[in-house]
Each structure stands twice: as C-alpha cells, then as structure tokens.
Amino acid sequence: MVTAGYITPEARPEVFRYIDAANVDLKAFTERFYHKVTFSHLDPVLDTLRWLKHETDIWFEITNLMIPGENDEADETRRLCDWVLKNLGDNVPLHFTAFHPDFKLMDKPKTPAATLKRARQIALSAGIKYCYVGNVFDEEGQTTCCPSCHNVLIRRSWHDILEYNLDGNRCPCGETIQGIFSASDSRRKLRQGRFYPSLV
Ligand SMILES: [Zn+2]
Prior knowledge:
Helices cover 31% and strands 18% of the residues.
C-alpha cells in the first residue's frame, strides 16, 4: 500500500490487517508544511510509522518527496533522519524523491539532483543503513550496499535490476539484509535476462 499514513488509531488495524508491505509518504518534517500544504498534521503520520514498527510485522519504507523551498532544508532532513533513527531504528529504508511541477504546485521548480544527493549523505552519515534517491537518474543513489562489507548487493536503474548478489536475505559476507527477498537462486535468473525479484 502506498499511503500518506494519515489515519486514526481506530482505523489502523482495520486497514493494515490486509497489508503485507507499505510505502509511507513522510511529506515533510514540519507541522507548518503539513498544515499549509496538505491541510493535515504531522504527528498522526509519525504515530502511524511508530505503530507499524512496534505493533506489526508489516514491511514498510518511507518516502520523502523534496519540494524546493518547502521541505528541502538540510536541517529539516537532519531532524527527519534523527527521528527515524530514534523511533524506528536504522533498518527502515528511506527514499528521497524528486518533485516536478504538477497539478496545484506549478510554481515550484523541479528538485535539483544535488538536493537529493545531499539528503542521502545526511541520512547515511546519521546512520541510516538503506537510503535511496528516486525520480532521477542516479545509479549510486539507487544501489543497495551491504552495511557491513559495503559490497554492492543490488544495482538498479529506475525499475530495472542490473546486478543482484543476495542469497535470500544474506550478503555473501554473511550479513543479514533487512527486507523480504526471494529465497531462489537469484543470480542464475539474472543471467537469463531481466530479473525481477518477487515479494514472497
Ligand atoms: Zn556484506
């Protein structure tokens, strides 16, 4: 489920009982943005993220769409990353994605690639293990590396997978990689052509 995570505590279990995996938009890390741009509030979204982590086994990742001048200050990114580490730990994948002008937000420019790179560096430096950039060409920013031996595990280009070195959920060095990965012989499949690991 792709979700804004804006849901009451009463409704959460009713909806998420049908969900195996979720990508939660954390649209900003200020109440000002949530109130002014989305007419909602930040705290209920943070509550949902904490609930997913501590009360369920649902696999979830976080996406932060960076809009120039609205939510792309380095300090805000730092505070967002610190909150994730403190409340969710270092294993929840965090995606920083590029905005482009559309619908009612035509007055903002598209997100510079440098902004996304900077955000990813902030996250990795803070200790988040899996951080990616999206909606731009950035092979390095879309590669999964082992947090222990730092070898490349999954190399991507947009939705294509170019290299895949996981065995189940393990790096060849033995480190367990968080996520839900097919247990089958992935490398053999990759040699036969395009490879799409399946969620199990
Ligand atoms: Zn490794």
